[in-house]
Design goal:
By secondary structure, the protein is mostly helical. It folds into two domains: 1-132, no CATH class; 133-257, no CATH class. The chain contains twelve helices and no strands. It has helices at residues 4-28, 33-53, 58-82, 89-97, 102-121, 123-130, 137-165, 185-203, 211-223, 226-229, 233-236, 240-246. Helix 3 (58-82) packs parallel to helix 7 (137-165). The relative contact order is 0.12.
Length: 257
């Protein structure tokens, strides 16, 4: 049985974290820090669920390990990538479109919104951690999807970082490695591992938590992921147009001639 009290407590914790990081963003005049916070919100929620459940079963331990590895890796990587950089251009555009008073508006436009989305999307974590059904084939399938997703995320990020560090690649488009098969291997990885989390929740009996991976899929494809990143990328990077014509946007596949 799901612990809805723990779910409410996690929602309150996420709200408080959003407030703290919003205040920090006002001092720094940079809301990009929310990107480093995003994955840690899920880890915080999972910790709250674990403390509330009082269980130490294999599925709870499994979920805590998987979410911790994903969340810490992603937060550390984004923090490293953004260190010393100006506010991300996406947030600069949001800022420009919401002046005057964006510093205050950013609380609900950026921080509160992301806290709410994380709260909804972490439902499979609640189900998996508080569920008491025996480990089954769906758990193993979920772990397999998680590993596949992490592979695409980690390797995709490493390939892009290495490409950007080489001055000879200035103005070029990365179209090798995983980026040869999909324009967004990191987003595809995110998609894949969250469906893995869902399979683990499904094994615990919470089929209805499918709302979480569906919402994550919509965000990655239509809102903050592919759609937002590529909205005007051909204008900023003319060579990207040919890349779009030859390479799948999201799901990996062979290049088109």
């Amino acid at each position: 049985m799901l612990d809805w009290t723990a779910y409410a407590v996690a929602g309150g914790a996420l709200f408080l974290v959003a407030v703290v990081f919003w205040l920090v963003s006002m001092l720094r005049n940079d809301v990009s820090i929310v990107d480093s916070l995003w994955s840690l919100m899920f880890l915080l929620a999972a910790f709250v669920y674990s403390q509330a459940s009082g269980l130490s079963g294999p599925r709870e331990i499994l979920m805590l390990v998987l979410i911790a590895v994903w969340a810490l890796r992603l937060s550390i990587y984004i923090s490293w990538r953004n260190h010393g950089q100006p506010e991300d251009y996406r947030y600069q555009e949001i800022r420009a479109n919401n002046e005057p008073g964006f510093s205050f508006k950013s609380f609900y436009i950026v921080f509160l919104l992301q806290a709410f989305l994380a709260w909804v999307i972490c439902l499979p974590l609640l189900a998996a951690i508080s569920g008491q059904a025996a480990i089954g084939i769906l758990d193993y399938a979920g772990v397999a999807l998680w590993f596949a997703g992490m592979f695409f995320e980690v390797v995709g990020d490493l390939q892009l970082s290495r490409f950007r560090r080489d001055p000879a690649n200035a103005g070029k488009v990365l179209d090798s490695g995983l980026w040869k098969f999909t324009r967004h291997p990191n987003y595809f990885g995110e998609f894949t591992l969250w469906w893995g989390f869902y399979l683990i929740a499904l094994s615990a009996g919470a089929w209805w938590t499918i709302i979480a991976p569906l919402l994550m899929t919509v965000l990655l494809l239509k809102v903050s992921g592919v759609a937002l990143l590529e909205k005007d990328i051909s204008e900023r990077r003319p060579k990207y147009k040919a890349y779009i014509e030859a390479t799948n946007a999201f799901f990996p596949g062979p290049k088109r001639s």
